[in-house]
Description:
Blueprint: E1 10-15, H1 17-27, H2 29-47, H3 51-58, H4 62-68, H5 70-83, H6 87-94, H7 96-100, E2 109-115, E3 118-127, E4 135-142, E5 148-153, E6 160-163, E7 167-173, H8 185-193, H9 198-208, E8 214-220, E9 229-235, E10 241-243, E11 249-252, H10 273-286, H11 296-303, E12 328-336, E13 341-346, E14 356-359
Organism: Billgrantia desiderata
Amino acid sequence: MxxxxxxxxxxxxxxxxxxxxAQHGRIHRQLIQRGIEVYGRxxxxxxxxxxxxxxxxxxxxxxxxxxxxPAILEEMNGIAWGAGVDFLDVLTLNxxxxxxxxxxxxGCSAFALQRHGQQWLAQNWDWRSDxxxxxxxxxxxxxxxxxLVSIGEAGMVGKVGLNERGIGVCLNxxxxxxxxxxxxxxxxxxxxxxSDDMQSALAVASHDRVCSxxxxxxxxxxxxxxxxxxxxLEVQPGEPGRIAPRNGIVTHTNHLYADNTPCPVQDYPRIDxxxxxxxxxxxxxxxxPPDAPLDEARLFDVLSDHQGAxxxxxxxxxxxxxxxxxxxxxxxxxxxxxxxxLTLRHGKPCESEDSLSVTLN
Length: 361
């Protein structure tokens, strides 16, 4: 049965990091508490541990966060206070990738596209359907920091989004047993979204580093007198691998493929990752004419592609997969960085044209 969605409401947060967190926790108290229950089940399914054991693992990440992004700890304390949960519960939510993705990765298909002087970013976020109703859209106006929009999970400080400086980022999960020094993935994403420029955003991957492997698709609306730019960053505790645009396009799914990565790591991709990447490349390089007009609807069509189903870009419930591997598309995002506009479809992009559109002035 097709499930129809109304556009998600936009949650407005402002002030200091602690004030932003307290508002986030208070407004989304029920979703955060439900998210803790969901990840309690997911951690058991994926790595065979209970929530209390996951909290113990999360404790190890507090010191690296305090060193690399101390203000975000204030925000997580605020979230905990507002939601009526313990700080360690919120830290555990924000370190869920480091705790769970050693055994299982989500899906996610992402691309950057520069055409007609416009820099676009887009992706599907594929994950367990347990988290579908815990997706939130946050517009954050921090003191002395760029305003930003982040689409992610309640109780988590960042994921996919853009800021008023024209910096945007997408995420692809990577399954790997590597975990070292650096910021947890979702905290690094938030630090990128608070960056004033592309150089500062790149420094999160190359200087702060990210403690476990993932792919960050990073783009900027403007560089000097030139148009936008994009780069794929296969982040990890070492120097990230980089993927440069080809004909203005960067694509990525859930396996590592950057050439000449300075510090290579081992990944364990799902069987559908390579076919989805090939399909994205075909749609964008071969089937999208260079002079074709682009808008959000056209790019949502790409994200709605079902070739190769059930292992397609737009992912639906697949009963033939083991229960712990059943990933579905939970939201789709298209961003026009030049116009500082993010458009979101909650659920599968093929099932509804209703969307939330947010523009940062």
